[in-house]
Amino acid sequence: MRLFRFVVVLVFAMGTALPAYAAAVVAQINLSSQRMTVKVNGKVKYNWLVSTGRAGYSTPSGTYQPQRLERYWNSRKYDWAPMPHSIFFRGGYAIHGTTSISRLGRRASHGCIRLHPGNAAKLYSLVQKYGMGNTRVVITH
Asked: Closest by alpha carbon to 131, among 11, 14, 17?
């Protein structure tokens, strides 16, 4: 029983409570291809270009559960840059819309995962509909 409690606490501390395949919404980000595949109930629904951390700024890999949603947000750290439809998944790291649409498909951020604003709104809507507890963010190389 003690080991079970440790594992449960460890899993929650790492930002995920369930495996990615058990979630209703899974946003899979491939850092090498700079693409996001969104699955809803196990079926691929979207495949989008993203921008992740540029040289000197990494995007963390792993499996996460969203921690908070912010429809309108501005980065306090980076000159109040707009971050519409933010899905925060690890501290200050978020998936969000960007005004730098021409940079999608290549590394350009300070570590966040940038999306076209329309795509960010769609993903945000899915997370709202199915809930943060039923959503996973999976980041791989």
From this structure: 17
- Residue 43 CA to residue 123 CA, distance in Å, equals 15
CA dist list (Å): 139 to 15, 54, 76, 82, 136: 13, 15, 24, 23, 10
Rounded to two decimals, the pTM is 0.84
Among 91, 89, 107, smallest CA distance to 50 is for: 107
The number of beta carbons lying within 10 Å of the beta carbon of residue 118 is 11
- Residue range 37-47, pLDDT digits in tens: 999 999 999 99
Structural domains of the chain, with CATH: 2-140 (2.40.440.10)
CA 64 to chain CA mean position, Å: 8
Distances (CA, A) of 83 to 24, 43, 73, 136: 24, 28, 5, 20
